[in-house]
Amino acid sequence: MKNDNFFEKVYQIVQRIPYGKITTYGAIANFLGTKKSARLVGYAMNSSHSIKNLPAHRVVNRNGLLTGKNHFASSNLMQELLESEGIKIENNKVVHFKDHLWIPS
DNA sequence: ACGGTGACGACAG
DNA sequence: TCTGTCGCCACCG
């Protein structure tokens, strides 16, 4: 798309997240060099509905909490996708979050 | 052109 | 430990 901007960078990184791995908004923001702008990453994801094959379910906040699940088609969709990849979810939070964490590099 | 908004994160109390 | 507040900055109306 015409997004040569911050948004596209975010999408590119999210698409690089390996299967069964997850990352955080802060990690993405940090990789982009704007660590304090994690909000922008989340905001970018808000427009991810325009992007297909975007594993947005692999992006959680720094606590491993599925803060974005409410933005999916179904509030339980995000959890199901993660569980289908071998990631356990408990009370909307990723279990062994750090063990599945993937940092863009 | 301007201000509100927000899938966050860090810090203060 | 937990809750509240502030900063951050691109996008949209």
TrEMBL record:
<keyword id="KW-0808">Transferase</keyword>
<dbReference type="InterPro" id="IPR052520">
    <property type="entry name" value="ATL_DNA_repair"/>
</dbReference>
<dbReference type="InterPro" id="IPR036388">
    <property type="entry name" value="WH-like_DNA-bd_sf"/>
</dbReference>
<dbReference type="InterPro" id="IPR036217">
    <property type="entry name" value="MethylDNA_cys_MeTrfase_DNAb"/>
</dbReference>
<dbReference type="InterPro" id="IPR014048">
    <property type="entry name" value="MethylDNA_cys_MeTrfase_DNA-bd"/>
</dbReference>
<keyword id="KW-0489">Methyltransferase</keyword>
<dbReference type="GO" id="GO:0006281">
    <property type="term" value="P:DNA repair"/>
</dbReference>
<protein>
    <submittedName>
        <fullName>Cysteine methyltransferase</fullName>
    </submittedName>
</protein>
<dbReference type="GO" id="GO:0008168">
    <property type="term" value="F:methyltransferase activity"/>
</dbReference>
<keyword id="KW-0227">DNA damage</keyword>
<dbReference type="GO" id="GO:0032259">
    <property type="term" value="P:methylation"/>
</dbReference>
<dbReference type="Pfam" id="PF01035">
    <property type="entry name" value="DNA_binding_1"/>
</dbReference>
<feature type="domain" description="Methylated-DNA-[protein]-cysteine S-methyltransferase DNA binding">
    <location>
        <begin position="5"/>
        <end position="87"/>
    </location>
</feature>
